[in-house]
Each structure stands twice: as C-alpha cells, then as structure tokens.
Design brief:
By secondary structure, the chain is an alpha+beta fold.
C-alpha cells in the first residue's frame, strides 16, 4: 500500500473572520450588495476609513474599508481601486441596490453606523480573539510543563497532549520514526496509524518546509490510480530548538474524519505550538544524556584499547558501570570513518548500529565507539564461560561479524569498507594487543585498497614485516631503496608514480590511467625513476624489492602512530584477572 497526501499550509495564526464580525447584533440586517459570499469567511486583521484607504500607498490586505452614509457614492466609484489594493471587504453605511459585478465583497449596513462604532467593534473582537488564544496557550503550556517539571518522559507528555486535545497524538523524530504516541483503538488500529505516519513522513520532503500543515492521507493500491480509501486527517507542527529541527508533533482526529473544523484547527495549532517547545526541551535533555553516556562509553573503550587504566580496581569499577563483562574472550574490530568515498557526518550513528549487529544469546555483547577517525568495536564472546565453545567458535563468530560489519558500514559510510580485526584476547589486558594488530592490518588494507572483513593474520606479509618494521635494519633498507626518490625535488610526484606503478603490477598503461597522465609521460617517469634508483624498475626482482620497501615503510609509520596511542602494558602485572 502507498500513502498519498493532500496538504494545506497554515503558517499564520487564526484571526477574526468578516462574517463573524457582521454577526454582531449592531449589524443586524446587513446585506451583501456584491462580490463572492465565500470571501466573507476570509480573515480580518483591522479596519480603516475610506479616506485613509484611498490615500494609502501600501496593501490593504486583511483590512475592511468602511464608508459612512455621506461617502456611499464616493466608495462605490472606487470599488475597483480598493480591490486592486487587496482590501478584504468594503462596508458601506446606508447603501442599497445590487453590485453583482463587484470584484470584492461589498456589504451594506445601517446608515446609523459610523466608523467609530465599526472600528471599536472590530478592535474588540480582534483583541478578544487574541486574548482567548493567549489564555488557552497559557493553560496548555502550564498543564504540559507541569508534567515535564515532575520528570515525565516523552510517553507521558504525548499522552497528556492527546488528553488535552481529545485526539490521537504522536511524536516523530527527524527520521520519521514514531518515538512516542498517545493513540487509542485496538493494537491493529495503532499499528496502522503509526505505519501510515512513518510512510508519509518518509516520502514527503515538502512537509518539512512548514511549521504547521493540515494533511489528508489515503491508502491506495500501488498498481493503479490512487483511489481514496480510509482517509485520515492530521495536523503537524515542527519541533525545533533554535536552528535545530528535533522532529514533528502530530495530531490525528480519527479515521474517516473529513477535515478539521476551523475552530478545532485553531485550537490544535495553539496546542501543538505550546507542546512542541516543551517536547523539544525533553528531546534535547534526552539527547544530552545519550551523548554523555556515549562519551563516557567512548572514554572507557579508549582506555581499554590503549591500556591506560591506573589499576585493576579502576577497570573493574568502570566495567561494572558500563556492563562490560570481564570474564569473556574479546576480539577488536576497526574501520576508517572516512574509508572509500565516504562523506558521512554521523559516524556515531554507524557505531550505534554496529553495537546492535549480530545479536546472539548466551552473553555475546558488542561495544562500539568512534576514536578519532576510527570506528572501534569490541566483541565480547562468552567462550571463556563455555567449555565447549573453544577458539574455533570465537574465530567463526569474529569472521561472520567482520563481514556483516563491512556490509553495514559500506551502506553507512560510503562505497567500500575494510573491517580488520586482531587475534582473540583472553583477558581485558590483551584487548590492547588485539587493537594494535587490527590497526596495523587496517593501515595495510587501506594502502592496498582491500575491502570486507580482514583478520590481521590473513595479510601474510604483515606478521613477517611487523617484526622488522622500526628496526635499524629495516630503516636502512627503506633508506637505501627509497632515499634517492625522497631526496629529489619532485619527491611526492615520483613516489606516487612508483607506488601506482608497482600496485598495477608494472602495467604502464594502467598506471597512466590511475595517475591521469599520458603514456609517454609515464614512460619518461619510468626512465627517470630507474636512473635515480640505479636499477631498472621494469624488472620483477627490482619491483619486488621496491614493494617490500614501501610496505615496510608503511608498517613502520603505522606502528609509530599507534604506539603513541597505546600505553605500556602495566596493568595486570600480576597476570591475575579482576573479578
């Protein structure tokens, strides 16, 4: 089923209508001399005498022009001018006859009425309407705010909104999800209205451009011209705190309700406007709590992967606070926030989704956060408490989780995502080493353009080169192989060319396409590189040595960066696991 909507904007407050003013007893027996009778339902902001109206240079929109008995002929002669100025109506004292072709409503009232009487009644009614709205607004605000001050949650607030209005009510977040509601009816009725709301808000971008809208939603077959079935009217108000939109507050009068009567719509507008500011306060408060909890969890995980706990008592206390098990097996997974073509501005949301990925019974838990430009997840596997679980089960779960995480992050963060993970940590102290292995593997994966779930020991050369990286022998080898290029004035250009050439397996045409140069330019650079290095880089054995030097240099740089993050393993010096 698909949702279709017909919308009407209501961005201005409700005001006095012309017809309502004419219903005052003093205007008894008034006559519509000309114009459209339906225009008498237009809003009226104030009144103005004929002489001032004819001399006014601005718009007369929502103003009633009044002509006294001695001005009848003068008023009727300038009807077209008044219409062009946008006047809402012309009220003429003592006028009779018919003006069927008049371009705006012309109303005849008793000749005994003067402008002072007319303007006084107009002012009283306009101010009375505004005062009534303000009183109602204060009553609504006090009633809803009292709940907030007593510590009510969103569900309590929206149920109170529903009780005040006598209508179904719901709060939607900025992603069109119903996060709280006060809807009546059967469970099926509630589910149907929630689904209808979420479907409509998800597809209606136009809806988000106005603060108040009245909507007519229909369910119709997706395979035919929309045929109205079970129409539902609603009004919605955007919840906003400063420049930040927090979501929508919605009122639904019920199924098969044709439309909101004007008075009901005016009340709904006041109720929504007052309630939205209070709901926004609660949403901001809840978000602040969530953000504080996430920061605390992020600090806790940073201490875990960096090994920065002062002692095991501190770890045990904070682990208990975050419900982190200290008697599990652990695997650390990492991925770049900006991997591939990612332009995401919400890596924290991706981390939250990662923490809910692959839920299993029996104590499996995933803790995820963002540390710098890295998404880090720690998977707690209850294998340590299960004698039959064994290491095989832990590795199988890690592989499955990494692949699922890669697929999810590819959607959240852009095309392609490498999720690398370290070896199984047997206690919380070993989490530090699992993180280090995963980070080193991630640097290599990023350099090689790898995707998917990648265990650190699957990159075969890493474990071998890691033992050499950072040593004096490794540094001498890198300097001997790459030094001549790095000391050249065009070092960056030449090293990028060399890296691309080796990455393409020595294919000159492919390398030229990668770095966007002509084939002849590429040939020239090959000759220049060969001359600088004192070797023909087209030969496979020389290419192997150069690739080894580049990988060793990459690993050395990665280990140095990670070494600054990770503290020395002073915790658990006794080797005793905290309980």
């Amino acid at each position: 089923m698909a949702a279709h909507a017909h919308a009407a904007d209501h961005t201005e407050p409700e005001r006095l209508r012309i017809r309502e003013l004419l219903d005052e007893p003093v205007f008894g027996g008034w006559t519509l001399l000309g114009g459209d009778d339906r225009s008498l339902d237009d809003e009226l902001r104030w009144s103005i005498p004929l002489a001032h109206a004819l001399n006014r240079t601005g718009s007369l929109s929502e103003l009633a022009v009044f002509a006294e008995a001695h001005e009848v002929d003068h008023a009727l002669a300038h009807i077209d001018d008044l219409a062009r100025s946008g006047a809402a109506a012309v009220i003429v004292a003592g006028a009779t006859g018919s003006l069927s072709r008049a371009p705006l409503p012309v109303v005849g009232v008793s000749r005994n009425i003067d402008f002072l009487t007319f303007s006084r009644l107009t002012g009283e009614r306009v101010l009375s309407e505004e005062a009534h709205v303000r009183r109602y607004a204060m009553q609504v605000h006090d009633r809803i705010a009292a709940l907030l001050h007593r510590g009510a949650d969103l569900n309590s607030l929206i149920r109170e909104v529903s009780a005040v209005s006598g209508l179904d009510a719901a709060i939607l977040d900025t992603r069109s999800r119903v996060i709280a509601h006060g809807m009546g009816g059967t469970r099926q009725d509630k589910a149907r209205k929630i689904a209808l709301l979420q479907t409509h808000f998800a597809v209606s971008e136009q809806f988000n451009r106005n603060s108040l809208r009245e909507e007519r939603l229909y369910l119709a077959s997706p395979h035919s011209t929309p045929v109205p079935l079970s129409p539902v009217s609603l009004v919605a108000w955007r919840i906003q705190m400063g420049p930040v939109a927090e979501g929508w507050l919605v009122l639904i009068p019920g199924v098969d309700h044709r439309a909101f009567p004007r008075h009901d719509l005016a009340q709904a507008k006041v109720l929504l406007e007052q309630s939205a500011s209070i709901v926004a306060t609660e949403l901001v408060r809840q978000r602040s709590i969530v953000e504080a909890q996430e920061r605390a969890r992020g600090d806790f995980m940073q201490a875990l992967v960096h090994g920065t706990y002062a002692n095991k008592s501190e770890l045990a206390a904070r682990a208990e606070h975050h419900d982190f098990p200290l008697d599990s097996l652990y695997t650390v997974f990492v991925s770049h926030v900006g991997f591939g073509d990612s332009t995401t501005s919400e890596p924290e949301q991706a981390a939250r989704k990662l923490s809910r990925l692959l839920p299993r019974e029996g104590g499996y838990r995933t803790f995820a956060t963002v540390l710098g430009g890295i998404i880090v997840a720690i998977r707690a596997n209850p294998g340590a408490r299960n004698p039959r679980g064994g290491g095989t089960g832990v590795k199988a779960d890690a592989k499955e989780f990494a692949e699922a995480a890669s697929a999810m992050l590819a959607t959240e963060l852009g095309e392609g995502a490498a999720v690398c993970y370290g070896s199984t940590a047997l206690d919380p102290l070993a989490i530090r080493e699992s993180y280090r292995e995963a980070r080193v593997a991630l640097e290599v994966a990023r350099s090689l353009g790898l995707r998917g779930g990648i265990p650190h020991d699957e990159i075969q050369a890493v474990s071998v080169l890691a033992s050499i990286a950072g040593t004096s022998a490794g540094a001498q080898f890198v300097g001997r192989m790459l030094g001549p290029v790095r000391n050249h004035e065009l070092a960056e250009e030449l090293e990028n060319t060399l890296s691309a050439y080796l990455g393409s397996g020595g294919n000159i045409n492919e390398t030229a396409r990668r770095i966007h140069v002509h084939r002849n330019t590429m040939l020239s650079r090959i000759e220049k590189l060969s001359g600088l290095l004192g070797m023909d880089i087209r030969k496979p054995d020389h290419q192997f040595s150069l690739r080894l030097a580049l990988q060793l240099d990459l690993l050395t740089a990665a280990q140095q960066r990670i070494a600054h993050e990770i503290a020395p393993p002073e915790l658990y010096a006794s080797g005793v696991r905290p309980h």
